[in-house]
Design brief:
By secondary structure, the protein is an alpha/beta fold. It has a single domain, classed as Alpha-Beta Barrel (TIM Barrel), CATH 3.20.20. The strands form two sheets. Strands 1-2-5-6-7-8-9-10 form an eight-stranded mixed β-sheet. The longest helix has 14 residues.
Length: 288
């Protein structure tokens, strides 16, 4: 029996009926924008849209990589839409957001991986709504430090790069990524801009062991990451990796306590937690 076929009771949710959901969905559609909420089939989309929050997905809706866990479509990619930064800023203004998360597909086809587009989007939001805090969830830019520096110079409030899984599982889960390269990205972000909190996220239920998670926690701490999200992997379709195990809520609580004891300042851990889930509530400037 495939353990990924039957979800346990704690992963079942009733869909809310709220006019705010349709308002956000329509606003995003009218602006020809993309959200990771829709493209990645996030289980929190009803809750977040109903609360007038969204994670904007820039640089198109097709990824140059083909990770085995992700529902975002891949290739061929189109050139970046030069009007997109202003369109995102317009949406942030219309939604009156004081905290926004901006992420992207991976664009290995672009010389800078799309870093300049990130910087332009941050700048556009800053012009339209100067006091809005901006969290960016970035790809690895193939380790390009010039690209990473361009994002940092734009002055995000939080910079996030997800590890996603433990070292052993990278070839199966993220075949076009590299565990050590992602750690190097996080370390570079921290050392280059120590005043900007560095965040990362992990999925569980892919076959990782507790010891492997502890090793990854330690690697992240040594690299300068202090904000962490831990969530249950859910199989987007039969063409993606199977779920190996559904962790009960109490185990997520244990992982949170463990991560905090190792040096993370803030940890969001739970079956439905995703990298940008309740990002505003999680964000507080860590103590030096």
């Amino acid at each position: 029996m495939n353990p990924g076929k039957k979800k346990p009771p704690w992963l079942k949710r009733r869909l809310p009926t709220d006019p705010a959901f349709e308002k956000v969905r329509r606003l995003i559609g009218d602006g020809h924008l993309h959200t990771v909420c829709q493209e990645a089939k996030c289980p929190n989309i009803w809750e977040c849209f109903s609360q007038q929050t969204a994670t904007f997905l820039i640089l198109g809706d097709r990824c140059s990589r083909n990770c085995r866990f992700c529902a975002v479509a891949h290739g061929p990619e189109e050139p970046p839409d030069e009007s997109e930064p202003e369109a995102v800023a317009d949406a942030v203004l219309c939604m009156n957001l004081d905290y926004v998360v901006i992420t992207s597909v991976t664009r290995d086809d672009l010389p800078d991986g799309g870093a300049g587009h990130f910087a332009n989007t941050i700048a556009a939001v800053r012009r339209r709504k100067p006091h809005t805090r901006i969290e960016v969830l970035i790809p690895d830019f193939q380790g390009n430090r010039t690209a990473l520096s361009a994002v940092l110079r734009a002055g995000p409030s939080v910079v996030n790069h997800n590890m996603e899984t433990v070292r052993r599982l990278y070839p199966a889960v993220r075949p076009q990524a590299d565990y050590d390269r992602s750690l190097a990205v996080i370390q570079f972000l921290y050392r280059s801009a120590p005043d900007i909190p560095v965040k990362s996220g992990l999925m569980v239920g892919l076959g990782e062991t507790r010891d492997e998670l502890i090793e990854t926690f330690g690697d992240l701490i040594k690299s300068g990451c202090r904000l962490l999200t831990i969530g249950q992997y859910l199989q987007p379709s039969i063409n993606h990796l199977d779920v190996q195990r559904y962790l009960p809520p109490e185990e997520f609580d244990e992982l949170k306590s463990l991560a905090l004891s190792m040096g993370f300042t803030h940890v969001a851990s739970g079956p439905f937690v995703r990298s940008s889930y309740h990002a505003k509530e999680m964000f507080r400037t860590p103590s030096p």
